[in-house]
Amino acid sequence: MKKQTKTLVTAAGISVFALALVLMVARHRNSVPTPGAATPVTADVLTRPAVAASDETVAQALKESKLEVSQLSVREVDGIVILRGKVAAKEDIERAGVVVKDLGFARVANMLQVAKVADDQAIERDAERQLARTRALDGCRFNVDSKKGVLTVSGLVKRELQADAARTILRNVDGVREVRADLKRF
Asked: pLDDT, tens digit, for every residue of 74-95?
């Protein structure tokens, strides 16, 4: 009796697998256009802009609109352009969204934030604290200077990876609009 049950379970499993395979093939066959047949146009094709959302494209459009966005990050997910970065005023957030929509994108997730007024001494202290706290940067020497939120770091690192880590850490310091690094290997 047990052998018959195993055989029936195996046969049922194979049948389910075969049915799933047949359905997938049928679905695929229906979605692949036949040669000479007209290709259907979807609304998605009509609403998508000809230009791709990239940091360069959007940054150029914002620059032409006299908007300054620091730490700009642009991503496109399923036709939605996601903006991240920091601007000087709340009005600039709204203007940036309009600029991106004018590029032809129907949907914009505007996650820009108003940057805090830069306290250069606090930025320098926080930057030095973050660099000293990071174990991966042990043995490196840094000089940090901040002017109006633009953080300049110079110094010596053992490996290029440490220079990259330092830049990443400094970009996340509160009040920093931009990081300029002059780090050399020793």
From this structure: 888 888 889 998 888 899 999 9
**CA atoms 44, 49, 50, 54: torsion sign:** negative
Give the whole-angstrom CA distance, residue 32 versus residue 15: 26
At residue 76, φ and ψ (nearest 5 deg) are -120, 125
The proportion of the chain whose per-residue pLDDT surpasses 70, expressed as a percent, equals 74
Provide the CATH topology of domain 120-185.
Answer: Histidine-containing Protein; Chain: A; (3.30.1340)
Output the CA–CA distances (angstroms, integers) from residue 161 to 29, 151, 157, 183, in the order listed: 49, 19, 9, 11
Side by side, the strands of the sheet bearing 70-77 are: 70-77, 80-87, 107-114
* Fold exhibited by the domain 44-114: Histidine-containing Protein; Chain: A; (3.30.1340)
Map tokens 């009509």 to a residue.
46
pTM of the model: 0.46
